[in-house]
Amino acid sequence: MRAYIEDLKKHVGSEVEIRGWIYNRRVKGKIAFVLVRDGSGVVQCVGVRGEIGDERFAICDKAPQESSVVVSGVVRADERSPGGVELGIRDIRVLAEAAPNYPIQIQDVVPEVGFLMQNRHLWLRSRKQAALLRIRAEVIRGIQEFFDSRGFMRVDSPIITPAACEGTTNLFEINYFDEKAYLTQSGQLYAEAAAMALGRVYCFGPTFRAEKSKTRKHLTEFWMVEPEVAFLELDGLMELAEQFVSHLVQRCLERRKEELKVLERDTTKLEKVAPPFHRMHYNDAVEKIRKEGLEFPWGEDLGAPHEEAVTKGFDKPVMVHRYPAAVKAFYMQPDPQDAKHALCVDVLAPEGYGEIIGGSQRIHDFALLERRIEEHKLPRSAFEWYLDLRKYGAVPHSGFGLGVERTVAWIAGTEHIRECIPFPRMLYKIYP
Ligand code: 4AD
Ligand code: MG
Predict the structure, then answer these.
(1) Residue 224 lies in a domain
(2) Which of 13, 69, 82, 397 sits in a 20 to 30 Å window from 284, CA-based?
(3) Is there an atom of ligand 1 within 6 Å of 406 CB?
């Protein structure tokens, strides 16, 4: 019977056939221990020379790493093995022998990350990288499940756009039939239109920023999910954000235990992630940053070290709200208490991961939005449709964007987000 490695626990005592690739091996006298991976997991297959014969034993002993194989054998419970089972080999066949020079040989010295990145197409086969991709897929399923089960409609926003959403400094420009166009930085503006049509919506797709800086938190192409809700104000938005983030974390804890173990993630910290998250006014965040010994002038946006200072001492994400309007996007509703501040929120993940969500209440007043578009020197003509939303039945509304890769990096405990997307795009990096 054909089986996937992740299901072998259900087949203890039976003979099964698995299909995969040789991951590693060890031979001790007349016994060979061959690690086979099939994408769903890794299992140790044990071959005894006297039982399987010389020809099969030679495969176990000599087939190069990454040769594709079909193995059949009996599943045995084994507490010490990963997955709790091993396979007693009865037959092993090579489908395609790998060239002997596989660049990412399993060895004690871990190759440097530049080399691994250059071989990203092969690096994906490594255990930790595969675990990261599985956690990413789980986060994406969690995103869809969360919104779909709460009455949100998924509405896809365009990738080719005529105007900026998040400032003009990091736009990727393209030539669109002799007109200037840009790769989208965010689907938000379109999600706002959709929210006025459908009430509660979310868009989800790739977004682009020509980030000129090399940091562990920036990609030039990343995936963002953006809910947008009519009649929702900042307080409700923060509640939605804390429920959403907690849902994603708890889902991974439930369904991706094995992967988190492979990644050696300390999950005790993640277990504490549940509503309510701590809410902190920007002014109090400034105070905390200074108390932690950093110099920080009032009025600036938070950089990575500042975010780390803000979250210090908290197990759960911290929601910093009401940043100065001057450092945030043109569309944010001013705080009625003090118009210097915007009704916005950033969700900062603990353990040094920092911002995973940025969101706000949106300006719904026509005249104010018109003024902001002018102040930000945005081309009015590209925003006529967006202004229309304030002409015909404007209502308070709010939304946020969550970056998938930053969220995966935090949940998986990975230092750099380049490992949290299959093929990362970064400054000067577009291969493979
Ligand atoms: O804070 P940002 O720029 O917000 C927006 O784009 C809003 N229009 C979203 C909305 O309200 N609908 O980006 C949102 C999130 C960030 O918190 C971060 O997680 C992620 O997107 N992000 C990036 N992730 C990887 N690389 C980059 N260069 C990123 N820029 C933003
Ligand atoms: Mg932001």
Answers:
(1) yes
(2) 397
(3) yes
